[in-house]
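The instructor's notes for this session suggest beginning with a concrete chain rather than abstract definitions. Hand out the sequence below and ask the class to guess, before any prediction is shown, which regions might be ordered.
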Amino acid sequence: MKIRLNRLVVLACAMPAMSLAHAQEKLLVQVPAVYDAQAMVGRKIREECALENLLGNHVYERVSQNFPGSLQIKDPGAAGSDKVLHLTILSVRGVGGGAWSGPKSMTMRADLVQNGKVLQTTIKKRSSTGGAFGAYLGTCSILERDAQALGVDVAQWLSRAALAGSEPVPQAAAEPDADEKKAD
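After discussion, reveal the predicted structure:
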């Protein structure tokens, strides 16, 4: 019991230092996000919803709260040696008609990259029917809820990844946590 208490005290003392270190770290967040070449996304959703901008902006907003020095970058190739958060939309499920045409979902991948090496990666998925007022929302508004929730998910994952260290990981060891969560 005494050993556990000592470990807890040491951890509690170390947390502010770790938080300060990651608060001072500068990250570049890719805005807009990009669609994967194999992404299954309806033409109308691509044209009308601008999901690449919505997702990129919501992820950037949340990440910059945890990493205040963060900046947006359009071309990740211009990042130099800075860490870049690449955002890729893997799939979007949804048709017109708002909540009346069923749930809407978005799956995305976030890759933390430095000097061309993937340091950490995760896959996240969110689904929504629009919540209590979903019947009054359009398809793009419901998908924006998914993008907002994904922004929170990525920021939380990134904070955990930063605290765990950023050693390059093999692709096979990447975090495959695309478990579906509800955004509403």
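Then share the key points. The helical segments are 2-24, 43-49, 51-66, 139-164. The radius of gyration is 18 Å.
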